[in-house]
Amino acid sequence: MQACEAFRKQVSVPCTACRYCCDGCPMKIDIPAYLDVYNTYKTDGSWALNRMDSIESEGKPADCIGCGACAGHCPQSIRIPEIMSELAELSK
Ligand code: SF4
Ligand code: SF4
Asked: Which pick of 1, 36, 40, 47 has the fewest CB atoms within 10 Å?
């Protein structure tokens, strides 16, 4: 159990869904919703990526322009633009 939790912490991003990152996103991407999918993908596998289709978000990871406006507001210092780019690649 402990090893499993350690693995989960290692591969996941520590998003608390505070949404501080969302207001400044010019592409209106629901960042925490996609990070939740990302975490499930990292721990449980690629089936989790199917959940991206059901997220009600105006912007998608593929719309991210890498401006970094989100990352500056994240108290967890999550590398959001990188992850959006990774999710965009994975969803091709
Ligand atoms: S880097 Fe991407 S996710 Fe972050 S604010 Fe800019 S467009 Fe939105
Ligand atoms: S600011 Fe950081 S911790 Fe808060 S919702 Fe956005 S990505 Fe998650």
From this structure: 1
